[in-house]
């Protein structure tokens, strides 16, 4: 089927699904039988979608009918907060704990990794008998024991490194194999997730499906069908920059949101066609605020900031027959609550988790006897946002920002009037909480002096060391400013080198494979991979200089490079001793003008 017809079909499916859902009367919460099938769980996470990027919150610039339907047919957590950037929010969803507790301090270079001691949502539901699948953007570690399949997921299709720069027929990982996707990345990821849902249903096994979509994150690459609806569309609602707003970027983001909404519609349609909508808890939210200064419902701030605009997200939870349609939860909530809440809804024991920061909101959602006490607990607490050393505290009614200014967010959602001198006691109370949180959470565990990446973790078939986790030396540079999806380039002299600092967890022989490109005219360089006294030489051959992957960028890229097809080259076998080590890749002879571009190094235990 041509791509354009396929795009039209996706939106038609979404519209039909939403129409069908609203045509059927919603059952009362009490009608679900006590001995019902253990519920499935689907968590859909958008990437860089701001609080204002939905038609149900009043944005007339776009239409999001599938996501809007979740708010009518389920519950909305109307005061829901995440962290300012990707990896910390994902860690909080998975652990129920503030991200610094699990060691997540940033989004790249090892700072995005969750402590292996953390028990995840996937661990909890897997131990309770669910099939578990993760699809899309992981962004909490690449090597085992940080890889999703080491964190409770049976299967994984997507990318572990976070920021991705190819959205068409994208390079992906599928259960340890490097593969190419098919079509636009969000459509492809959703298709793989739905395959997992159907396969689980076919064998009668309840499931957890974590669908971590990666839009509207940049690059602003969106299929023609969505873009054509927005190319010349007037943008009526503007962000704080008014006439100075980057309208092409806004149009691209909104077009990506309509694509994302169509894929949410596909999920809803699949649940209906399989007859499991009533057996499935579905959650939708975003990982941080908008990635541009577009309309955000009047909130101040954007992605990367700790004000409401940077950390407030929509959050919808649907469970037909159990959560009453139109339920609104006004109490303070956040990503830290999702693990205990989903476990509570599913009737699953948490097991030996670390002490949680989140609370179980299931009584509020289900309207059980404990709802009143949970409501009081949620309304009385505070939720903290942090990034780049800044700390901001949000209560039910006020925000103390990272600079000590106090705002009544119930009356001043845009945070325009500082009340710190008008309400000194509240400012002091929240300030004391911020100081204690900084001491007891943010600074409780000092960061490592050096990020090291594990090699040979028991249970891992291989160890991937992407360019993101390496360090270039000499004239070698990264292919893009954003390291997560970069490669090493400009390797031209024998003084240049690439290093990876590692912890070898299992001593022994490893087969080393380098993923490279090299113009045919430059093929033939001799390179050596060394670690202490051990080394293995190889020749860069044959030449391999593929074109860049196709793209439909609607605005120029700012931090991303372009992807190309790297190919594997066997370097040979190397003996690694257990412990701290440095892997060094350098050239010893260069017959042409350059050595190679390098995407990753892969180490596999040698088979005797």
Whole-number tally of structural domains: 3
CATH superfamily of the largest domain: Alkaline Phosphatase, subunit A
CATH architecture of the largest domain: 3-Layer(aba) Sandwich
* Strand coverage percent: 25-35%
The N- and C-terminal alpha carbons lie at a distance of 47 Å
Number of helices: 12
Description of the structure:
The protein is α+β, with helices and mostly antiparallel strands. The chain folds into three domains: 40-349 and 357-387, Alkaline Phosphatase, subunit A (3-Layer(aba) Sandwich); 390-442, no CATH class; 453-605, Galactose-binding domain-like (Jelly Rolls). The chain is built from twelve helices and 27 strands. It has helices at 3-23, 65-73, 86-95, 121-127, 185-202, 224-230, 247-274, 308-311, 338-346, 362-366, 371-380, 424-442, and strands spanning 40-47, 75-81, 131-137, 155-159, 171-174, 177-180, 207-216, 280-286, 312-313, 315-318, 327-334, 383-387, 390-394, 398-400, 406-408, 453-455, 463-466, 471-473, 477-478, 488-489, 497-504, 508-517, 526-531, 534-539, 567-576, 579-589, 597-605. The strands form five sheets. Strands 1, 2, 3, 4, 5, 6, 7, 8, 9, 10 and 11 form an eleven-stranded mixed beta sheet that branches. Strands 16, 18, 21, 23, 24 and 26 form a six-stranded mixed beta sheet that branches. Strands 12-13-14-15 form a four-stranded antiparallel beta sheet, with helices on one face. Helix 1 packs across helix 7 and helix 5 runs parallel beside helix 7. It is globular and about 70 Å long. The protein starts with a helix and ends with a strand. Mean pLDDT is 93; it is low at 1-35.
